[in-house]
Amino acid sequence: MQKLAWIGGLLCIATVLLDAFQTIVLPRRPQGRFRITRIFYVLTWIPWSAIVRRVQTRKVRETLYSIYGPGSLLALMVVWAVMLVFGYALIYYALGSPFTDGIMIHGASPFRTDFYVSGTTLFTLGLGDVLPRAMHARELLVLESGMGLGFVALVIGYLPVVYQAFARREVAIALLDARAGSPPTATELLRRHSFASVDGYPDGVAALIVLLEEWERWSADLLESHISYPLLCYYRSQHDNQSWLSALVAILDACTLLICSVQDASARQAQLTFAMSRHALVDLAQVFGQAPFQPSACVDRLAGGQFELMCEELEKIGVKLCMDAEAKERFQLFRAKYEPHACALSAYLGMPLPSFMPLKGAKDSWQTVARVPKAAETIHSGKVHVQEDAHNHDH
Questions:
Q1: Phi and psi angles of residue 309, each rounded to the nearest 5 degrees, phi first
Q2: Which of 37-41, 297-301, 367-371 has the highest average model confidence (pLDDT)?
Q3: Beta bridge partners of 100
Q4: Which residue, 147, 143, 140, is CA-closest to 99?
Q5: What is the pTM of this model?
Q6: Could you tell me which residues come within 8 angstroms of residue 90 by beta carbon, excluding any fewer than 6 positions away?
Q7: Distance (Å, whole) CA 1 – CA 6
Q8: Which stretches within 23-134 are classed as H helix?
Q9: For residue 373, is pLDDT > 50?
Q10: Once rounded to an integer, what is the mean pLDDT over residues 363-375?
């Protein structure tokens, strides 16, 4: 029995240390099918998402989804701490519970004292109501207390890194709101960049190239940060109609249009952004073990003549299209390079994919919150008239 307790205790401690190292310290994709973090997210996300999907109200559903990301992070740390306490308690039990407990009840299991000592030592409480009777027990207590301090320091350093990566991700998504709509769409992105050069300012094509360069870097940052910390994929955006997945897919949609159908100078940058964005999408799908969907399993976002309608809308705003006989086929081939992976992640994370064209009557998120009271407008208007009258009086 003591040998089993030794093995179990050492296994618990080694497993937690290895998992924490791979999850927090190691700056690359963690390996191993039986890691604590992987098993934890499989056992918690699947039932949680299944319950949340049954909620009919979208706002409530998104709120419940948003709880999971930070909640799971805290719960994972609790799991690590409990396993460390349990592992050391098993080792103390294997040593014959070498402690003097003044309130030990006759006939009670000594493992409860071992677990208590392990918990107070790991969290460095130092109560001193239970004393070790052997030198090796003292040495283990010192080792566990040092590990407890390291565990707390690791957690304190881990949280800012996670939230800094989350903030960097969300800044670009918020900026895309005014450039491609809410949720973002490829057609709206091209429409809002179809303006001409005025007073020396660059035209829409030049602005679009700059935007695509920024999203190439954003995709690279997403790839590095979210593969190192996959739990960031569960973090939702500030608004219900925004998500990192919909933004990434909208950029891929726009790049596909620019590469396959649009005649302007942005095609080269669109190819670079497409390659980086697709790389991030495919790698993140692999991190979660999500195989690409079959084309029949994906909802066709351009069904029923929507491709032709999209091309007509683009031509109306002055976008020059290359509509040869192979244009639609070429467009579908490029979509097949990323859309099956996007569908898999969308189904797994509960994040809807954007359409190619904006919904009728849809308002951007910045428009829905920027409601200035009429009284303020009246006051501001009055101040303007007073200033104009004073200016006229001076002249």
A1: -65, -40
A2: 37-41
A3: 131
A4: 140
A5: 0.83
A6: 5, 6, 8, 9, 12, 114
A7: 9
A8: 36-52, 58-94, 110-122
A9: no
A10: 54
